[in-house]
Amino acid sequence: MTESFPGRSQFMTKPYQQNPSSGLTRELIEVLFPMFEQASAGAIAVDRDSRITWINASYASLLGLPDPQAVIGREVRAVIPQTRMDEVVKTGQPLLLDIMEHDTQQLVVTRLPFYDQDGEIQGAVAFVLYDDLQPLTPLVSKYRRLHQDLVAARKALARKTRGTRYSLGDFVGASPAALEVKRRARLASGRDVAVLLLGETGTGKEVLAQAIHSASSRAERPFVGVNVAAIPENLLEAEFFGVAPGAYTGAERRQREGKFQLANGGTLFLDEVGDMPLALQAKLLRALQEGEIEPLGSNKVVPVNVRVIAATSRNLEAMMAEGSFRSDLYYRLNVLEIPIPPLRERLPDLGVLCEAILEDLCQGLELRGEITDSAVSALASYDWPGNIRELRNVLERALTMGEDNGLLDADAIFKVLPRSSGRPASSLAPRPIRPLAQTLAAVEAQAIEEALVASRGNRTRAAKLLGISRSVLYEKLAKLS
Ligand SMILES: Nc1ncnc2c1ncn2[C@@H]1O[C@H](COP(=O)(O)OP(=O)(O)OP(=O)(O)O)[C@@H](O)[C@H]1O
Ligand SMILES: [Mg+2]
Asked: Which of 376, 334, 324 is nearest to 353 (CA)?
């Protein structure tokens, strides 16, 4: 097939164009071309319209083309989507070294333009220098790392422009309690109903709210969060519903959109909804019921279509009982309730949480970010009032203080773990007498939990530690959940 390379006699690169009649130059190229072609893992040529004029057998087989003749005359991009030969033809500039993704392969390629006697561009030729990247391992692994970073950065950017950073995979945990949270979150993303997230500080309410939105049919629309507790009471109404132009004299002359309008079509995340003053609760209820809002200083209503995800760390039922939270609003917000357990109630997740957080903290640093089993057990001795946020802080401090290149052992943890453990020492606390079966069941549940903590949630190892079979452990876990 080499024989039929049509442009071969005119295969000239730009520098030689100054002296096109030089026989030596042309000879040189004619000698070089077959050498290049043979040493490479494939070669291809295109004309000035970037249509394939020639391809050798090795490239055709590398690309998995059963019939090389069939691609002659086709646009090169239709055959090799990641090619840049058309760019070379257009600019006349060679691309001497490039890595090209093709399917799952990464090919090192060189691409050169070629000219006719008058210096007019005729087309381009490309050689695959390596298809097996073994000799280039250091270079390629660096490239792969950069490529992965790029993919991650693009994803992060896409999420940011949509207003979210988290997806359901970011809610780490495999304990029965965590799995139940995820099950409900998936349910919530499939239905366009109001969701109420209940959990202490740092349990992941924001993570879940964003994750539900990202997996919902509104994912491409905005996610707008508003923290009710963080906004002064007298500004809340404007923040929610916006301000009509000229509503106030002075600063607020221009129209300002409220969070409802900003979230239109998407999701409105009402964080710390328990901190909402009663007067605003009434207005919020009306907006949700009617699907329309009235900006401050306006007498026109604006239709809005938002899905509300509300969150609170407060006990809304107690607040309703004392009259500080409207029950009608509560039922509007609480169509699907997701209680998020505090970390102390899902200690078996400590191991996987540590791994995920350490990986995140060590990203881009030359740190190992590993934690020993005994260090995880040390973490389990604490009661975590600040939950996962606090766990993250503790691990960050341990990494900063640690000397061992990012390996955290029990000592490193004890150095930074807050001393006060709010957990009552169980042997000292007076315990009510219960039927023996209940006491035994409680002790068994605790033993299982401790084994899961020690094995970082690995059930096979936990079963071994307990001296029972894996299937018996599964049975017991099923009864517990
Ligand atoms: N299940 C989880 N897996 C991994 N990281 C988590 C998880 N839950 C929370 N986090 C991390 O913990 C931190 C706190 O989470 P988040 O802000 O969602 O908590 P929150 O419940 O909204 O807290 P607050 O009530 O104080 O606002 C974040 O850094 C988040 O990434
Ligand atoms: Mg929050």
From this structure: 376
Q: Cα dihedral sign for 18, 22, 23, 24?
A: negative
C-beta of residue 370 within 8 angstroms of C-beta of residue 406: yes
d(CA 310, CA 226): 10
**Which among 125, 126, 122 is positioned nearest to 48, based on CA atoms?**
122
User: In 3D, which of 328, 439, 343, 444 has the Cα closest to residue 385?
Assistant: 343
pLDDT in tens, 251-300: 556 778 899 999 999 999 999 999 999 999 999 999 999 999 999 888 88
Judged by DSSP in three states, 417 sits in: coil
Choose one of 164, 206, 270 to mutate for the ligand 1 pocket test, by most ligand atoms within 8 angstroms of C-beta.
Answer: 206
C-beta of residue 275 within 8 angstroms of C-beta of residue 282: no
Q: Are 296 and 304 a contacting pair, CB within 8 Å?
A: no
Is 349 near ligand 1, meaning CB less than 6 Å away? no
In terms of CATH, what superfamily is 168-194+208-338?
Answer: P-loop containing nucleotide triphosphate hydrolases (3.40.50.300)
Query: For ligand 1, is residue 384 a contact (CB within 6 Å)?
Result: no
Cα 481 to Cα 476: distance, rounded to the nearest angstrom: 9
Domain boundary assignment for the chain? 2-132, 168-194+208-338, 343-416, 436-480
| Spacing of C-alpha 291 from chain mean position | 32
Count of other CB atoms within 10 angstroms of residue 417: 16
pTM of this prediction exceeds 0.90 = no
